[in-house]
UniProtKB/TrEMBL annotation:
Keyword terms: Membrane, Transmembrane, Transmembrane helix
Membrane-topology annotation of the record: Multi-pass membrane protein
GO CC list: Golgi membrane
Region of interest (Disordered), residue spans: 1-23
Listed name of the protein: Protein YIPF
Pfam families named among the record's database cross-references: Yip1 (PF04893)
PANTHER family assigned to the protein according to its UniProt record, in alphabetical order: PROTEIN YIPF
Organism: Rotaria socialis
Similarity annotation: Belongs to the YIP1 family.
GO molecular function, one term: small GTPase binding
Domain Yip1 span(s) in chain numbering: 111-273
Subcellular location: Golgi apparatus membrane; Membrane
């Protein structure tokens, strides 16, 4: 048994060669070793950055970071999925400001031969807000003015407010507002083979065409027959000419005579509607005026006779 050089017991005899006197556990770094260490550090940093980036949240696109769209824009993007019997389908036709409504009201009573009222104001954004309120205002104005005319035509003891005038005026005006766009739509689509106008666009332009009759319905209360007829003709020609200017660019140039006749039908239909409203609610005949004058004179004479007898 012998002690080895490291202090432990061993059975082997000591080697005759030179014995190890020191054990080096660390060595000085050379220039090559320093470069290797730097490369290792850079590699570790790159790996850490790659790992961090791999776990970092990456949006699929930049739109995920934007704010949500308003409800109106969402509805506009989903119009392809809506159907005509759904209320959401008509929401886009009520998105209009006051300035646009005023421009369309003014354009419906100012015909311009060189500029289409439809193409300049309605084509890009047809609405139903303006036509709806134009028709409602026209209905109420006709009913109120018609009752006022009846009050002056009938004796005071026989007069009662006729609420049926509201129903009758609503039927006549709404029937014209919906029937004429329907006829014009099928005429352009199936006879002229023109798909330039949609049904809602025609509803829009016909609704605004009734604007001029709102002040005229107030002037119809004047109990002068020739003035009532003159107002009816002038208002119908002005408003109907706006419709003709809007429809004329779409007619076929090869059949000018027939298309001109069809435009005259549009004008006369407009005039016929105005005549019906005037005759039903406002027309004052000479017999009614004479009977009213006679009734007034008789009542005046009776009151004067009664006063004289008392004296």
């Amino acid at each position: 048994m012998m002690f080895s050089s490291d202090g432990f017991l061993t059975d082997q005899p000591p080697s005759k060669g030179p014995s190890q006197t020191h054990l080096f556990t660390s060595f000085p770094n050379s220039a090559v070793d320093l470069n290797d260490d730097d490369d290792d550090d850079d590699l570790l940093l790159d790996n850490k950055s790659n790992i961090t980036q791999s776990y970092a949240y990456k949006p699929a696109n930049e739109e995920n970071l934007s704010l949500p769209l308003p409800a109106t824009n969402k509805n506009n993007t989903n119009n392809e999925q809506l159907h005509i019997w759904q209320l959401e389908y008509y929401q886009k036709y009520f998105q209009i400001d006051t300035q646009q409504v005023l421009e369309r009201l003014l354009g419906s009573i100012t015909p311009k031969p060189n500029r289409s009222y439809f193409n300049s104001t309605i084509r890009h954004n047809p609405d139903l807000y303006g036509p709806f309120w134009v028709c409602v205002t026209f209905i109420i104005t006709v009913a109120i003015s018609g009752n006022i005319v009846a009050y002056f035509q009938l004796p005071d003891t026989d007069f009662q407010i006729d609420f049926s005038k509201i129903t009758l005026s609503a039927i006549l005006i709404c029937l014209y507002w919906w029937s004429m766009p329907t006829v014009v739509y099928f005429f352009f689509r199936y006879y002229i083979k023109c798909n330039e106008y949609t049904f809602l666009e025609l509803l829009c332009i016909y609704g605004y065409s009734l604007t001029i009759f709102i002040p005229v319905s107030i002037l119809w209360m004047i109990p002068i027959a020739w003035l009532q007829w003159l107002l009816t003709i002038i208002a119908s020609v002005i408003s109907g000419s706006v419709l003709i200017v809007a429809f004329w660019p779409s007619v076929d140039s090869d059949r000018k005579s027939f298309n001109a006749l069809s435009m005259l039908v549009v004008l006369f239909a407009h005039l016929f509607m105005a005549i019906c409203i005037m005759m039903v609610f406002f027309h004052v005949s000479d017999n009614n005026i004479n009977s009213k004058i006679e009734t007034t004179m008789l009542s005046t004479m009776a009151s004067s006779t009664t006063a004289t007898s008392k004296v």
